[in-house]
């Protein structure tokens, strides 16, 4: 017994932008804060007076090719 070929076309998934936008803004903001601490938190532009943040992100800084020495 043979069955006729049925070509099923998948329906596109619609993702509303209004649901994604707050999460996208949060992720971008957290990414920029993380990038600041990894790349610029040292020396004259330091937010914190001690070097704890610098030492905490030290390996990540070298991994992303930011010089710090």
TrEMBL record:
Q: Which UniProt keywords apply?
A: Membrane, Transmembrane, Transmembrane helix
Recorded hits in Pfam families, A to Z, give: CbtB
Q: Which domain of life is it from?
A: Bacteria
Segments crossing the lipid bilayer: 20-38
Keyword Transmembrane helix in annotation: yes
Listed name of the protein: Cobalt transporter
Q: What is the species of this protein?
A: Amycolatopsis orientalis (Nocardia orientalis)
């Amino acid at each position: 017994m043979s069955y006729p070929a049925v070509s099923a076309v998948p329906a596109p998934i619609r993702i509303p932008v209004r649901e994604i936008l707050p999460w996208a803004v949060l992720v971008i903001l957290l990414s920029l804060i993380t990038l600041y601490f990894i790349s610029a938190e040292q020396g004259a532009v330091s937010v914190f007076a001690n070097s704890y943040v610098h030492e905490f992100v030290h390996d990540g800084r070298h991994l992303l090719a930011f010089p710090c020495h």
